[in-house]
Amino acid sequence: MTSKNPGSDPAPRPKRRSFSPEYKLRIVAEYDAAPKNEKGAILRRERLYHSHVKEWRAARDAGALENLVDRRTSPAREKKSAAEAENEKLRRRVERLEKELAQNKAALEVMGKASALLEMISGGAD
Q: Coiled coil where (predicted)?
C-alpha cells in the first residue's frame, strides 16, 4: 500500500499544444472556404477562437506565418513577488483614500459656505 507524501511534488503539467505553420494554413483555408453557419463548428472542433484565425490569416497574407507565436505557447507573464503585489495593493488603497479625501474637502467647503450663509441670514433677522 502506497501513501502520498503531503510534501511531494504534484505530477508535472502537460506541455501546451503548439500549432505548426501547416496546421495554421489548413485551418485558415478550411475556415475561409466554409459557409457562414459552419465556421463556428470549425472553431469549436479545433477549440480555437475567431481571433486566432484572423491573426493567422493576416500572418499568412504577410508571409510571416512561421514567425507567428502561438498564444498558447507564448511565455506567461512573470508573477509579481509577494512584496510587489502588496505594494500594488497599498498604492491602489492610497489612491482611493486620496480621492475620498478630495471629495470630503469639497463637501466641507460647501458646508462652510452654507453655514456662513445661515449665519448671515440669522444675524440679519435679529
A: 80-114
Provide φ and ψ at 55, rounded to 5°. Answer: -65, -40
Q: Tell me: the pLDDT tens digits for 42-69?
A: 888 877 777 778 888 888 787 776 666 5
Only one residue has cell 503548439, namely: 18
* Nearest residue to 56 (alpha-carbon basis) of 78, 40, 74, 71: 71
Rounded Cα gap, residues 39 and 49, in angstroms: 11
Contacts of 120 (CB under 8 A, 6+ apart): none
Cβ atoms of 53 and 71 within 8 Å: the answer is no
Element (H, E) at 99: helix 82-125
DSSP annotation of 6: T
Judge whether 31 and 54 are in contact, CB under 8 Å.
no
